[in-house]
Amino acid sequence: MRAFYLFISGFILGFSPMLLATPYQRVNDGWHGIIGTKVIFHNEPYKDVDNKILPLPYLVMRRGNFFIDGLKIGYRVAEGINGNFDLIITPRLEGFDANDSAILNGMGDHGFTIDTGIAMVWKQGIFDFNLTVLNDISHKSEGREVIASISHTYILTDKKLILTPNIGLRWQSENLVNYYYGVNSAQARPDRPAYSGESTMNYTASLDLIYSLNKRSNLFMAVEHESFGDDVYDSPLVDKEQAISFLLGYGWQF
Fold first, then answer.
1. What is the pTM of this model?
2. Which end of the chain has fewer CB within 10 Å, C or N?
3. Class for domain 2-253, per CATH?
């Protein structure tokens, strides 16, 4: 898996100049975008942990180079007809509290972290190739993640409905895997043996849907399926091979 991370790093170093050579196309100076609300449903991979339901604000806003996209805050370094290159910071909402279930008692809280990194989109024909590289800067997991995917957008029903299917890979470093799924020797007990995983590859598939009610109002939905790599599923804390997330929301464009 380390070879995969080195390959991605080399790809970024080789590909970035193509976008950075493209001048940034500035939009108007005022904030514009979509504001609304959303609810996320996520079935947790941990044993005997209830599914998570999170009501959150929904923001997609931009002013000049700066933007907010959901929970992600970013700065657009380069943009052109072939894609864009962003610097981003975002919270990772995964993890657990020690009192979430009996199997987690004594594990301590392993809550959200703050990640920063880069996000790139490369447009080739009808497809978008997406690449995100993240590092934990909150010094909790000290982990890294690389997400690579391919997507295509369909505009239907007289431009009222937009569908975007996406398939991808999610590589997670050894530190990240062990922060969320590892068990050290001090935490081990008969029903929770010590466990140390390695870096792993998860597989993802998702579908995003946006339906325009009128010129300013939109409904949106997203469904994502993630299949875990062996180093996640083999953890004594986990009893699921996959997780499904569902998002439903409303946005008002301004």
1. 0.85
2. C
3. mainly beta
